[in-house]
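To: structure subgroup
Subject: Chain for Friday's discussion

All,

I'm putting the inputs and outputs inline so they're searchable in the archive.
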Amino acid sequence: MLDQGSVIPYLRQRGLLTGDATVETLTGGVSCVVLAVSNSKIDLVVKQALPELKTKAKWVADQRRAIVEANAMQVYHAITPDSVPELIDCDADEFTLTMSHLPRSCTNWKTDMLEGRIHPEMGRELGLILAKWHNAAALSVEIKAEFMEDSLFEQLRVAPFYRAVAAVNPQLNQVINALITEITKVKITLVHGDFSPKNIMATTDNRPIVLDFEVAHTGNPVFDLAFLLAHLFCKIIRTQNISEKALLLATASQFLSAYKANTQLPVAESLPRHIALIALARVEGVSPVNYLDQPAQQRLIAITKAALLDSGMSFEMLFESANR
């Protein structure tokens, strides 16, 4: 695996660097080594997929996801060039990709929201971006064919989120199995698969730049919608600040409204149940969030399990229950 000492000779070998450079280790989440490399001529980020994710529970994932990410980054950058980094190089042998570095003034959207800097227009912009991606890929036979293999989606999302929750909640198996069928069998467009606040950077004028495309696959667009909304749901549960709750609810509402206003695809009626299940997985799944205390966890569990058993649950009802 690359580190601060080996990345400079690696980039020289790839023909991407001459001379010396400054190296900085960036936060790579649980799945990657991420290094920033810069000098007077280049400003790059090098990302290498780990063979085993850094989670408390054992979580092994195919390193080929780096190649998937590189291919998806090119597709998304072509559709929304201002909202996706530019791919510079992909090394399929070492499961490593090199991309342009974002402006240093960008901030992480997850961190911003947890620290109370909540701008609902970020939700609106993300809804528009996601609609553009889903619309374009749905019309492209070539894109859908390229990303048809979905084993990484099973490893990184279906198993640790949906199946892990089903394993500890037998009473929810029927509804969870139906949701699994929907996201694995209904293949409509290119799905990002990790459309999460931690993978979204915010510019100084509150415009999003999206990262981390390693779970991209041809699948059901409801998953991208639910994945982001589940994170916003968790953050509403977390805060006791009434103003923050209102801003987070506005962010979620603007995201879904902007998507619906711009998408050419139907929004699945099952969306609220997918949101509830993914939020529940952030407590009972393989990769729990680190910002919910015990009372918040218990409240989330009660709300989401009730929502999963309520076929009439709407987006508005689900989020209002979190907002109380």
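Points worth raising on Friday:
DSSP finds twelve helices and ten strands in the chain.
The mean pLDDT is 94.

D.
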